[in-house]
């Protein structure tokens, strides 16, 4: 799918299934940006949409016509219909001032199961091939021992030198990371767009990710009932703290799966409760947030892989 905004275009390379962009959870979504402009200023973050992470970016290409081109590879972090909106770009021609390019929101359907399997693509099972016998005599062992010893010595020198040079690191605590993701989720205004189910799913993902980073439990892989049983015996969180976060998750489950009527105000109230829980979490459990995350340029759900 190609989206054009004047001299700039974005091409989403994915299959169309029932008129929807569709990829699998294990796949990457290539997005190619092309621009006919004298100067191009990409955003610091390609997207802040929850549910997506920038996996890598190819080198910039400029052809003979001075056309700017670069491909970004985005990784989905959850199944379902994930909204994706690129951050604004800026371009400038030789005879004009800088102007901002705003991209429309695109919904990508992320699947977890391959429906169709092509039997023709299956490979037959073959036996292990035997190595041919050497016609020459045995090679002396001592040259290989000497080469291995030299390699080990060089590796040790490189490791020692590396340890002596401190690497600059920018870190962010789990609490700050989670509050940032909650703020980004609110900025999407999904309830106002009649996408309350997506909002509640992403809200649960953010809270469960926070419990994983602070309590060390696989909260995103457990059901809410399994999580309740685990938190009952978890020493890092008080009964009050466990009750508070479980109440938010159970209400989100009810609204998503039981078909209960969901209003914009109730979604906003759940978001405020989630932010309040994250803000007071260190005081509830009586310890500092466990660990820290290295900052990347991606979003949440961006940083489920952070």
Could you give the count of β-strands?
Answer: 15
The stretches of 5 or more residues where confidence is low (pLDDT under 50) are 283-306
Helix content: 25-40%
Our measurement of the CA-to-CA distance between the termini, rounded to an integer number of angstroms, reads: 29 Å
- Total number of helical segments? 6
Total domain count = 2
Helix/strand/pairing category: alpha+beta
Question: Could you tell me the radius of gyration in angstroms?
Answer: 25 Å
The largest β sheet comes out as: 6 strands, antiparallel
Model description:
This protein is of the alpha+beta class and 306 residues long. It folds into two domains: 2-111, Immunoglobulin-like, CATH 2.60.40; 171-294. 35% of the residues lie in helices and 22% in strands. The strands form four sheets. Strands 1, 2, 5, 7, 8 and 9 form a six-stranded antiparallel beta sheet that branches. It has a four-stranded mixed beta sheet with strand order 3-4-13-10, with no helix packed on it. Strands 6-11-12 form a three-stranded antiparallel beta sheet, with no helix packed on it. α3 packs antiparallel against α5, α3 (196-215) runs parallel beside α6 and α4 (224-232) runs antiparallel to α5 (239-257). The longest helix is centred in the middle third of the chain and has 23 residues, at 142-164. It is extended. It starts with a strand and ends in a 12-residue tail after the last strand. Residues 283-306 have low confidence and may be disordered.
């Amino acid at each position: 799918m190609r989206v054009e905004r004047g001299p700039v275009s974005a091409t989403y390379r994915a299959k169309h299934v029932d008129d929807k962009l569709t990829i699998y959870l294990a796949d990457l979504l290539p997005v190619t940006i092309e621009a006919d402009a004298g100067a191009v200023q990409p955003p610091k973050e390609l997207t802040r949409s929850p549910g997506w992470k920038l996996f890598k970016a190819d080198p910039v290409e400029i052809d003979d016509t001075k056309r700017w081109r670069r491909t970004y590879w985005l990784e989905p972090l959850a199944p379902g219909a994930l909204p994706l909106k690129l951050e604004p770009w800026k371009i400038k021609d030789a005879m004009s001032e800088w102007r901002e390019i705003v991209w429309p929101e695109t919904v990508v359907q992320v699947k977890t199961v391959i429906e169709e399997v092509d039997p023709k693509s299956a490979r037959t099972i073959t036996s292990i091939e035997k190595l041919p016998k050497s016609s020459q005599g045995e090679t002396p062992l001592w040259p290989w021992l000497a080469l291995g010893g030299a390699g080990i010595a060089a590796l040790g020198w490189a490791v020692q030198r590396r340890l002596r040079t401190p690497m600059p690191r920018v870190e962010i605590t789990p609490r700050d990371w989670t509050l940032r993701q909650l703020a980004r989720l609110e900025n999407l205004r999904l309830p106002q767009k009649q996408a309350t189910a997506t909002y509640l799913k992403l809200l649960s993902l953010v809270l469960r990710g926070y419990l994983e980073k602070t309590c060390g439990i696989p909260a995103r892989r457990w059901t809410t009932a399994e999580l309740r049983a685990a938190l009952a015996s978890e020493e890092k969180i008080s009964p009050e703290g466990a009750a508070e976060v479980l109440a938010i998750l159970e209400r989100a489950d009810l609204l998503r799966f039981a078909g209960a009527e969901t209003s914009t105000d109730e979604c906003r109230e759940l978001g405020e409760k989630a932010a309040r829980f994250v803000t007071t979490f260190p005081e509830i459990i009586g310890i500092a947030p466990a660990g820290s995350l290295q900052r990347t340029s991606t979003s949440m759900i961006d940083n489920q892989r952070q």
